[in-house]
Design brief:
With 129 residues, the chain is mainly α. It has 4 helices and no strands. The chain is elongated. The mean pLDDT is 93.
Length: 129
């Protein structure tokens, strides 16, 4: 099993990519142009929130753990992301908050839960071999 010290970089990259994917899907759904730059402009507040949450939860210690790392990063990304959007004059309406909460929850917790299942299955195979 890989050690957490080796997993934090792929986990951080996965968080970054999934947050950018969330922003890109949203921009595409609303037919907004400039997909790459636009997605990054939409994603930056959520990326900032996730980064702060990585530090506060010390996620590098167990980056694939759903709790506290995954939940902390998810809530941090949404809460700080919405605060930064509001502070910079970007749209913050209840439907968007709910979509961000659900989508980022599925993305940021989902891959961690899948990874936990795969790691558990791998451990069982190693013990059985």
């Amino acid at each position: 099993m890989p050690s957490p010290s080796r997993l934090w970089i792929p986990a951080a990259i996965a968080d970054l990519l999934l947050i950018v994917l969330f922003a890109a899907i949203g921009r595409d759904a609303h037919a907004r142009g400039d997909v790459i730059a636009g997605a990054l402009a939409t994603a930056w507040p959520f990326l900032a929130g996730a980064s702060i949450a990585w530090l506060l939860t010390r996620a590098w210690r167990a980056p694939l753990a759903a709790w506290p790392a995954g939940v902390g990063i998810w809530i941090g990304a949404v809460a700080v992301g919405m605060l930064l959007r509001a502070a910079t004059g970007q749209t913050v309406v209840l439907p968007f908050v709910l979509v961000a909460l659900v989508t980022l929850g599925v993305f940021l917790l989902g891959y961690r839960l899948i990874a936990a299942l795969l790691l558990r299955a791998s451990r069982k195979r190693q013990r059985g071999a």
